[in-house]
Design brief:
alpha+beta; 26 helices; 14% strand
């Protein structure tokens, strides 16, 4: 018979960001331990609040599944005498296995005939096994930080106060330190603080809800969202969408009790980002906008208890927020009086990295690199002037009072202050955009100036760190170089920027002359390989085959948009029914040349002498090459690797006939070299598109 299993760990308030990862681990670890113990079960659901982590597992079997094993005993010659009667050895074996002598079998093994028997373990009761499994689960839960309390050896995110464990209506009794499990949990700490008995797992959610605790996270989140939206509608506006804040608030409360507050309209002078950050970062308040998206002088706070006088609670929130907004107003007005050039000078006192100097030195390097990149993108010069100015000012707001108070506003305040100082819009926007993307899948710069400065800033950081040996390892990337490398690739692809990566790396390394011990060429090679790996990672994440990605980046990875075009073209060609024999034919061309140490030749049929042909298949391959080469050149000029690959694919028949008709390794050196020259021409057609030796066939 099967029963539901309920297990809850009652604690002091756990940080909001810990809860969902802990619940995922709770479900995974418990299911792994049940599987290892051969205990069948059904669906698992997790529940949680700041003061509890719980799992409800359906249809948990009463007992372990039986385990039948075949046990081998002594040789048959030892187990039975010459008359075929069991010996003492056979009887001892039967006794050890727990069966009668009559049930012993003789089996053939590589070593000869041996006694054998099937041994079946009936399995222990699940209730018994859970007494050791559940405390092991508690101890195994991972957290970013843990603590110990009292004289306990157990470490947990916060002190554990209670353990609720039920298998059906039966208590799973065990101790964790001196905490004894039982059928009890706790209600809301303010609205119903007493112990609650849970007679059966099916009563867990309804009894908690009756005690002002919504343990179902999805239901609690939905309740928060509905109630704050209703309050915003009463104010004539709507909630500024903020899924991250909604998740955080959901994990800060057990029962939502939102109230609306108001702040003085004078604070609307502050940039929206400052107001929103002041509300959400410290206070976890939701901002309210009108139906045109403009901020209104209101906010909504979600409390963890229902107040008798909501207006009194709202006034308390208003006092706290007013103090923060007064500070923000002071910082903002003081910052507006300063000149951004003065801030740039102050960056001499801000460290970028101990071995790489100050932020001021970085700003100058980024400015020089941005000017170079802008020249590649726009020969006219307008972009160069904008990128140069934006790069010089891009780190200036780091020494502003506002960013000192709200570090997350770096770049945002740079844009605001640059616009207030009369800088061109392109410059102001680029100052904010140069940090993008700030996270995986984050927004990219939308302007060309922002893209140029962002690439320059990120490449400067990568090259600088590589120069002094701060290369990311498997488990360490303190300067977020992987994210910055991915950002460079994504921006170049998004903006269609086709300047060579090797030129970009060389220009960035020029700013670090005299820094680092390794030869610059060695660092350039390391950085290029690093970026090539980032491209391969992104392409694989987008669903392209690993061998297709390997083939494309091995051929060439200098033109970022072209890498994507070639990868998609090869992936599409791979879907063709006759791709495998085509790939085999081209792999044969590549491999035979690699073994002979012959490089692919430029598209010059003059390197091949028809006078040395000994078979018609050689002339046929040369003619096919000449026809296809013209098509490929045209398609590559039009940046259509898909059409170029289709044209190259038509060579397959001629290549197959060539290998069937002649031996490449002819005895006559002149004939042999001529055949290699012909194959080199063929390989030269696709060497910059894909390395077919990397394709799995």
């Amino acid at each position: 018979m099967n029963h539901p299993l309920l297990f809850e760990i009652g604690t002091e308030e756990i940080p909001a960001g810990y809860i969902e990862p802990a619940l995922a681990a709770l479900s995974r670890i418990l299911q792994e331990k049940l599987a290892a113990a051969r205990i069948d079960h059904g669906e698992a659901r997790v529940y949680g609040t700041p003061r509890r982590l719980a799992i409800l597992m359906a249809d948990v079997a009463d007992r372990q599944k039986p385990l039948t094993t075949e046990v081998t005993g002594p040789p048959a010659t030892v187990g039975f005498d010459s008359q075929g009667k069991p010996t003492v050895a056979a009887r001892k074996f039967a006794e050890k296995v727990g069966i009668s002598v009559r049930k012993i079998k003789v089996v053939d093994t590589p070593k000869g005939a041996y006694l054998a028997a099937r041994k079946t373990e009936r399995g222990l009761a699940t209730l018994t096994l859970l007494k050791s499994i559940l405390p092991e689960v508690v101890v195994a839960l991972p957290f970013p930080k843990t603590m110990r309390w009292s004289d306990y050896r157990t470490a947990f995110a916060r002190p554990v106060h209670s353990l609720l464990a039920l298998l059906g209506s039966r208590v799973v009794g065990f101790y964790l330190e001196d905490i004894k499990s039982g059928p009890h949990t706790w209600g809301h700490p303010f609205l119903k603080p007493g112990r609650i008995k849970i007679p059966h797992p099916s009563e867990y959610l309804p009894r908690l809800e009756a005690a002002w605790v919504l343990a179902d996270i999805a239901k609690r989140r939905s309740r928060v969202k509905a109630e704050i939206e209703a309050l915003a509608a009463e104010l004539g506006g709507r909630i500024l969408p903020d899924e991250e804040l909604l998740t955080t608030v959901t994990h800060l409360i057990e029962y939502p009790a939102p109230v609306a507050g108001r702040f003085d309209t004078k604070f609307l002078e502050l940039p929206d980002e400052v107001l929103i950050t002041s509300m959400r970062e410290h206070q976890k308040y939701f901002a309210v906008t009108d139906f045109n998206g403009a901020l209104m002088p209101y906010f909504i706070a979600v409390n963890n208890t229902v107040a008798k006088d909501p207006a009194l609670v709202a006034r308390g929130h208003q006092r706290v927020l007013r103090a923060r907004l007064e500070d923000a107003m002071f910082f903002y007005r003081s910052d507006l009086k300063a000149a951004m050039e003065d801030w740039v000078a102050k960056l001499r006192g801000v460290l970028f990295q101990a071995k790489l100097g100050s932020m001021h030195a970085k700003a100058l390097r980024v400015q020089a690199l941005a000017e170079t990149v802008a020249g590649w993108v726009d020969a006219g010069g307008a972009l160069r002037a904008e990128a140069s100015r934006a790069a010089l000012l891009c780190k200036a707001d780091l020494v502003s009072q506002m960013v000192g108070e709200f570090p997350k506003l770096q770049g945002v305040m740079g844009r605001v202050y640059a616009a207030a100082a009369g800088e061109p819009e392109a410059v102001a926007v680029a100052i904010q955009e140069h940090y993008r993307p700030t996270a995986s899948g984050g927004a990219l710069p939308r302007t060309q100036t922002g893209a140029v400065v962002s690439i320059a800033d990120k490449m400067d950081s990568i090259c600088g760190c590589f120069r002094v040996g701060l290369v990311p390892t498997g488990g360490s990337d303190p300067y977020a170089l992987r994210r910055q490398g991915i950002g460079i690739v994504q921006i170049m692809r998004d903006q269609g920027l086709r300047f060579p990566l090797d030129k970009l790396i060389a220009a960035a390394l020029a700013g670090y002359e005299g820094i680092g011990d390794a030869p610059p060429a060695q660092t350039a090679e390391q950085v290029f390989a690093f970026l090539r790996n980032r491209m391969a990672h992104l392409l694989t994440e987008e669903g392209l085959s690993k061998d297709v990605v390997a083939a494309v980046v091995a051929a060439s990875a200098d033109d970022v948009p072209d890498v994507w075009e070639r990868a998609r073209a090869l992936e599409a060609l791979r879907a063709a029914p006759d791709f495998e024999p085509l790939a085999i034919a081209f792999k044969r061309v590549v491999n035979i040349m690699k073994k002979a140490g012959v490089a692919a030749a430029p598209a010059d049929a003059g390197a091949v002498s028809p006078a040395r042909f000994e078979d018609s298949c050689e002339g046929d391959l040369l003619q096919a090459y000449q026809r296809v080469a013209a098509e490929v050149a045209r398609h590559q000029a039009d940046r259509r690797p898909d059409l170029a690959l289709r044209a190259i694919a038509t060579l397959r028949g001629a290549v197959d006939d060539f290998f069937d008709g002649v031996m490449v390794m002819a005895e006559d050196p002149a004939v042999r070299d001529n055949r290699f020259a012909l194959l080199a021409l063929v390989a030269g057609l696709f060497e910059n598109i894909a390395d077919f030796s990397k394709i799995s066939t």
